[in-house]
Amino acid sequence: MIEVTLKNFETDVIAASMSQPILIDFWAPWCGPCKSLGPILEQLEVDYNGRFTLVKINSDEEQQLAQAFGIRSIPTCILMIGGKPADGFMGAQTAGQVKAFLDKHLPTEGELVAESESDEAAELLAAGDPQAALEKLADALALDPGNDDTRFDYIKLLIELGGLEEAEAALAPKLTEIPRQLRFEALSQWMNAIKYAATNAYSNWAIEQFDAKIAENKRDFELRFAKACLLMAVSQWTAAMDELLEIIMRDKKWHDEAPRKAMVAILELLTPPKPKAGAPIPGKTAGGIEVLGKAAVQEDPQAALVSSYRRKLSMMLN
Q1: Domains identified in the chain, total number
Q2: What is the pLDDT of residues 49-100, one digit of tens each?
Q3: CA-only gyration radius of the chain, Å
Q4: In which domain, by residue range, is 80 found?
Q5: Active-site pick, 34, 71, 223, 258
Q6: Residue finishing a domain among 150, 176, 202
Q7: Claim to verify: residue 299 and residue 193 sit in the same structural domain
Q8: Of 31, 71, 138, 241, which residue is the catalytic one?
Q9: Which of 74, 105, 120, 254 has the smallest C-beta neighbourhood within 10 Å, fewest atoms?
Q10: Catalytic residue flag (residue 229)
């Protein structure tokens, strides 16, 4: 439990809520219901073992904060998540009522453990140990099967490591959903390209052989598509997109728009993931205050690549 004033509000509430839910208790020393609610909140903070942090704000002494939240009566509790109010309640509550309120918004212990496993997987992957990362992601998915971010990362890494059968099994439930999520459709397209590259008539060709034949007939779309699939299979994304664009430029509808679908899949796979709730936004404080001009915030190179090829695809289709 933390006593918060205007001085430490930005750090201990706004910034802290980017990585962990913060429950604000607006109270006053003269308030009878506050005296009954306070111990309940403090005990629940202990019982929930780090799933949220309780902060207390004396509304008499911190009237500017009370006014900012529109506090009309006390006790009033506000749950902050990701730097913003997510929900709240007024008046004294029983322990059961507060638990029901918290459980609507807080991750379960299993979900927290799964998130920790996913974070460790990302660190292992960055350190060059994809097999260990895969094991961590498998553990995380077992703990939290409904976490689509973890499922996507797990399937993607399986494909990269050649585990297509396991990837197909993990992907299958997402392909039955209506509507399908584009990122899982992208994984399906990638696996299809890998399979096609391994089974078509040109599966043993070198890139130079493709280029020589394409030079003789630039409208040999089957050959161009086979080359693009081979490039996708080995994650040569830019070269694959260039080849797909050559087909789209000449025939947008060829083979039920297979080149366009493959291109969209690549763009989705290359799109950088959205930052997690706790990640700072470049050029802003935790409270969302601009500290840098737009020119000072450089675009991520991969995001720039994706934007560039999205524009190229749009131009070809229009």
Answers
A1: 3
A2: 889 999 999 999 999 999 999 999 999 999 999 999 999 999 999 999 999 9
A3: 26
A4: 2-106
A5: 34
A6: 176
A7: yes
A8: 31
A9: 105
A10: no
